[in-house]
Specification:
491 residues, alpha+beta, seven-stranded mixed β-sheet, 11 strands, 54% helix
């Protein structure tokens, strides 16, 4: 397997060659090497080097040192960033780690060699180095073999690696779903054993990893794996309930019956029971009610506006269809914001009620919050993203054909969240099998508004602003005469 030179980013190659000219080891590393070997376009290019951050900064004027847990160099080429890190070593030796109850890494600021740096990375397929000068791959961890076998395997003991950093379990799901790989059996069993460890991680890291699962082009498969492994219930009981108890059992049973799903080694009865235990911890959604797991302190996930169990199953089905729509948006290069992703999870459950005629604004707000609030609380969604998601859901009422002429449609189109709101409306309609022809009305309105501003800017004029309060009423001839005779009235 060889990498075509034309696929390598010119600026990343420039960074590597300059470091090498000054006597430092420097390689392309991680996901970019993996993607290049798989004939995929890398999202970004990372460089690993023997130069310290201070030495790297001395070589590049466009360099900025960032980070507290570990110092990194960001080398800027316009809007593009080439992230350059110094070779790292594991902050604790594996012999000591095996005897320690608490393995969570909180400080990771230890420099090392390229071999040590490869050993401390998460998965073998991410531990590859590529030498640009000699055009060869450097594989200290067996990553090339796993790339050919299409498996996700941790570097070292998976029990230790997941306890060191539980977010690696979500990354295993991400790579398996996005690349279409299987999770190696020992790695998969470790996920089942240690899924509770995910609660120890910093909420912003977990939330960001979940956003990546949803916007990475494999949202549907990612959620299937989260449900199958029980990670969904650990992240958010409300999300697990919305994804559905029946779908979870189906995915688990399918994986149990197919040893090839996670390698060629079948699970023994004890290991199979690990996979099944999550269903006892996850909430079961029936007739619109889901009891919270014991000891979590979370209120039950209840939907007062859901009619019956068949209605719940229908909305769950629409949510899975929505995940497929998110994958279609990724394929179309649509940039999905965090607030859009949160609203997309809630929309299949609330839009049916929000667009009904006769619903009052306060009732619509209560419906949206009833689904949104548990998600926001359990996933620790940021305040700004949560508020924008709420606005996106409430805007669904205005977009329905029966209500679009009420209020001021042009003013709605100019709201900063309108583009995401219209996307959620259209994808929710497709997920539910509803007609989407009415979206053309709003698309045309958006085009007219953008055209007006673009025309103004092209002709050197400032964009036109509408007068607040409307036009001033013209005076009658009698009022004009009175104004001339009375200066006070004229003013």
């Amino acid at each position: 397997m060889r990498i075509a030179r034309e696929l390598i980013d010119a600026d990343a190659e420039k960074v590597v060659r300059r470091l090498a000219r000054h006597g430092y080891k420097a390689y392309l590393v991680g996901g970019c090497v993996r993607d290049l070997f798989l004939d995929r376009t890398p999202k970004d290019f990372d460089v690993a080097t023997s130069a310290t951050p201070r030495e790297t900064k001395q070589l590049f004027r466009n360099c900025r040192i960032i980070g507290r847990r570990f110092r990194l160099c960001h080398i800027f080429f316009g809007p593009k960033i080439i992230e350059t890190s110094t070779f790292r070593a594991n902050p604790r030796r594996s012999a000591d780690a095996a005897d320690s109850e608490e393995l969570l890494i909180r400080h990771d600021n230890v420099f090392g060699t390229d071999t040590e740096d490869a050993q401390r990375r998460d998965f073998t397929i991410n531990g590859l180095f590529y030498d640009v000068e000699e055009e060869r791959v450097i594989d200290h961890v067996g990553g090339m073999e796993d790339l050919e076998c299409r498996v996700v395997r941790t570097i070292g003991d998976p029990d230790i690696r997941f306890r060191e950093d539980p977010v690696r379990m979500l990354r295993a799901v991400k790579f398996a779903a996005r690349l279409g790989f299987a999770i190696e059996p020992a790695t998969y069993r470790a996920v089942l054993r240690h899924r509770l460890e995910i609660t120890k991680c910093a909420p912003p890291r977990v939330a960001e990893e979940l956003y990546r699962l949803l916007r990475g082009g494999a949202a549907h498969r990612s959620m299937e794996l989260l449900v199958e492994t029980g990670l969904a219930a650990m992240l958010s009981p409300a999300l697990a309930a919305m994804l559905g108890d029946e779908h979870a059992q189906g995915a688990t049973a399918a994986a149990s019956d197919d040893p090839e799903a996670h390698g060629d080694e079948p699970l023994d009865p004890e290991e199979a029971s690990w996979r099944a235990t999550w269903a006892d911890e996850a909430p079961a959604l029936a007739n619109g009610h889901a009891p919270a797991p014991a000891g979590t302190g979370l209120r039950p996930f209840e939907l007062s506006f859901v009619e019956d169990a068949s209605d719940v199953r229908e909305r769950q089905s629409h949510l899975w269809n929505m995940l497929g729509e998110l994958d279609a948006l990724f394929a179309a290069d649509y940039e999905m914001s965090n607030s859009l992703l949160v609203a997309a999870l809630a929309s299949p459950f609330v839009t049916k009620n929000l667009i009904r005629s006769g619903i009052r604004p306060i009732e619509a707000s209560d419906i949206a919050l009833e689904v949104l609030e548990p998600l926001v609380t359990e996933l620790r969604v940021g305040r700004r993203d949560a508020e924008r998601a709420r606005q996106i859901l409430l805007t669904q009422r205005r977009l329905a054909p029966a209500r679009r002429r009420r209020g001021k449609p042009a003013a709605l189109v100019r709201r900063e969240f309108f583009r995401d709101a219209l996307t959620v409306y259209e994808t929710t309609a497709r997920a539910a099998g509803r007609d989407t022809s009415d979206v053309a009305y709003w698309r045309k309105l958006v085009g007219d508004e953008q055209g007006t501003e673009e025309d103004d800017l092209a002709e050197g004029r400032k964009p036109r602003r509408r007068r607040r309060g409307g036009r001033r009423r013209r005076r009658t001839p009698e009022e004009e005469a009175a104004a001339e005779s009375d200066p006070a009235m004229g003013s």
